[in-house]
Amino acid sequence: MAKKVLFINQEITPYVPETEMSIMGRDLPQKAQECGLEIRTFMPKWGNINERRGQLHEVIRLSGMNLIIDDTDHPLIIKVASIPQSRIQVYFIDNDDYFTKRQMTADETGKEYADNGERAIFFARGVLETVKKLRWTPDIIHCQGWMSSVVPFYIKTAYHDEPSFTNTKIITALFSEQMKGDLGSKFKEIIAFREAKKSLMAGYNDKFDFKELGKLALDYSDGVIEASPNIHKDLLAYATQKHLPVLQYPGEDFMGAYADFYKEISPNVGE
């Protein structure tokens, strides 16, 4: 039965502190599963996650791949844990340089990491390669947070012909939280991979900030959700200009509206 949703989250509580996004990262997959949807959930293994308290353990059969970014090999490590008091299993994308030894968007002093763009690229490719290994075929990929913003671009280009993603629809959720800086001058070059050609980045500003990253996500998405009442208005206007289906902020009792939106974007979901 076709009703599979892949949640790619930037934050999930209780593994990281509670924010609007991390609470949604926990609650949405659980409510979706309670509605009868088959789900998988991913997030980065941020360095501030306590692995012992969270009972994370490495999945050896999924780990061991090297991802080449900017001509450098980066080992991909996959870990897994289950959220207490729920049946939700979370897969964590880990790497010593990008995640284990780092905090989240910014370091302990509040300074954003200069290679956040590389981290987002590694996370996106790490998730998609792991889903392929799981031999799982999602009907919908639901992206939450800037760390997942590269996923729509890769799904519609580099991974377009992969059997796991051939018919997958992509939803980008917009939140109020955003980066303050940019992803560096090399981002438009190092994002290139397979059919995700550098030439496809020509229309974006060289200064790849939160707004440009959001536009990249929306350009390759099939639907947009206002996940917060205070989202970036320019991005919402951009989605409207692109004639993308938009689910307006449904309030705290959101699951019914989300389920209906899933069916609108991918009619197979929920049948």
List keywords for this structure.
alpha/beta; 271 residues; 9 helices; two-stranded antiparallel sheet; nine-stranded mixed beta sheet
Instruction: Give the ordered list of helices and strands.
Output: EHEHEEEEEHHEHEHHEHEH
Q: Mean pLDDT, nearest integer? A: 90
Largest sheet: 9 strands, mixed
In terms of quaternary structure, the protein is single chain
Shape: globular
- Number of separate helices: 9
Ends distance: 7 Å
The share of residues in extended strands comes to 15-25%
| Sequence stretches where pLDDT stays below 50 over 5 or more residues | none
Helical content band? 25-40%
* Structural class by SSE content: alpha/beta
In spatial order, strands of the major sheet run 3-6-7-2-1-8-9-10-11
Radius of gyration, in Å, reads 17 Å
Number of strands: 11
